[in-house]
Amino acid sequence: MDTAPRTVKANGITLAYRRWGPEDAPPVLVLHCRGADGADWSSIAERLATGPRARRVYAPDLRGHGRSDWPGTEPGAGPETYGYEAMRDDVLAFLGALALDRVDVVGHSLGGIVGYLLAQRAPEAVRRLVLEDVPAPIPPDPPRPPTERPDGDLPFDWAMVRATDGQRNAPDPVWWEHMGRITMPTLLIGGGATSPIPQDQIAAVAGLLPDARVVTIDAGHLVHEDRPEEFLVVVRDFLAA
User: Which ranges in the chain belong to alpha helices (H)?
Assistant: First the structure.
């Protein structure tokens, strides 16, 4: 199975990515959470890429993460360098660079926000959408305090954390207003009572979508890591429909 890391130019930066599965299998794009990278999906991707319903899985490192460019380290870079919209535009350019016209998208947390912004901007590019424990674009009350930086070297740009903390506290109202543009079938997976994501927000997002289904897997925030078998069952069935 071809899983060697590779790179592609997209939206003016270099994005690293991994891929699994047969060349002619239906494509699925998996987007990681904040602080991770495409390798976070390896065990799930390997399973999705094999068997009678095998998929062609693509897992990029979002900007500021892993082996992709960290443009926030460049002189003159501002908070917008790591805006969710910039990551969305990267992913759209990534699909174009690899000639992927229409894909299924699975996004976890930050990757899920990028996923639903992609589905709003380019619904024709997304066949089905899976959002794993993804917060709604609602300002938290009280606001989230600044995240404390861990000691030592990090596999991601700390400027990305500061920027996404800011957008999480003050999301663009348009994100909420445009939820109705997500017209493709959408599966929302909640992590249950132990997740830090308010589960009523997941239900609220589902209520705005024309074709949405909500499933709760009591695993906390890291559903695909802590309950991979249950995650794979619901995702495979949804994507195969």
Answer: 42-48, 84-97, 110-121, 158-169, 173-177, 199-208, 223-226, 228-240
